[in-house]
Amino acid sequence: MPGGPTVWKVVIVIGITGWSATARMVRAQVLSIKERAFVERARAVGAGDLRIVYRHVFPNVFPLVFANAILTIALSILSESTLSLIGLGPDPTEVVTWGNMLDDAHKAGAMPNGLYLWIIVPGICIVLVVLAFTFVGYALDEIFNPKLRRR
User: Fold this and answer.
1) Is 75 inside any structural domain?
2) Can you give the residue range of the structural domain that contains 108?
3) Residue 12 within any structural domain of the chain
4) Residue at 86 is within a domain
5) What is the pLDDT of residues 100-133, one digit of tens each?
6) What is the spatial distance between Cα 133 and Cα 77, in angstroms, rounded to a whole number?
7) Rg (CA), the chain
8) What is the reported pTM?
9) Least CB-packed of 2, 43, 142, 148 within 10 Å?
10) Span 25-41, pLDDT tens digits
11) DSSP-based helix, strand, coil % in the chain, nearest 5
């Protein structure tokens, strides 16, 4: 089907719709950091804007961005699976995804015919991968975010 969804079109759509939450979080963090005393001290001793960004702002924002990127990967996997399940994902002849597997199982009548594994296996795979990325993201957030550390 020419002009239909391809892998790259789906990636671009998920990327375009998924960046706003990360951008808001990074902006809030940067606005918070630029008001802190160590940035004011660096400016007082004559550091330029570029030096302040690279030496003070970026190292304090990067761990948060990294942890959020891991969580965004989990949401992207879930989004692609959902799009494929409802038939808006990439062409099944081009690439095999868990969402396409679930869509094929639904179209073949897996539930009425008792072919439960056709639905259970891809569903469990999606859940386990998304859960793994979520746990890794939360663990990294807890490691990198000093406010979340327990004493």
Assistant:
1) yes
2) 18-146
3) no
4) yes
5) 888 889 888 888 888 899 889 999 999 999 999 8
6) 10
7) 21
8) 0.74
9) 2
10) 889 989 999 899 998 89
11) 75, 0, 25
